[in-house]
Amino acid sequence: MSILKYTLIRLALIAAFAGLFSLLGMRSYLLAFAAILCGALAGFIFFPRQGQEAAGEVERLATRRPKATSSTDEDVEDEIVEGDPEA
């Protein structure tokens, strides 16, 4: 849920900067580039806690291991180096 929350904050910041820069007369690729850059920087500066929560959730999702296998990385490396003893 924190990933969605932080994504929505960043999108709102980008949209706000795009609107502001559009009123100031920016157009085309410069408008998009400036809005994305300023929105990302504002999110990084003003919402660090939400960013850390989202990063922690991504890390938890990425490091979750499937429960079907019980072998560790060391076991797999040993099998590769020493050869499969059951083969």
Automatic annotation (TrEMBL):
Source organism, top-level taxon: Bacteria
Transmembrane residue ranges: 7-24, 30-47
Keywords in alphabetical order: Membrane, Transmembrane, Transmembrane helix
Segments of this protein annotated with the region Disordered: 58-87
Bias (Acidic residues): 72-87
Name this polypeptide is given: DUF4229 domain-containing protein
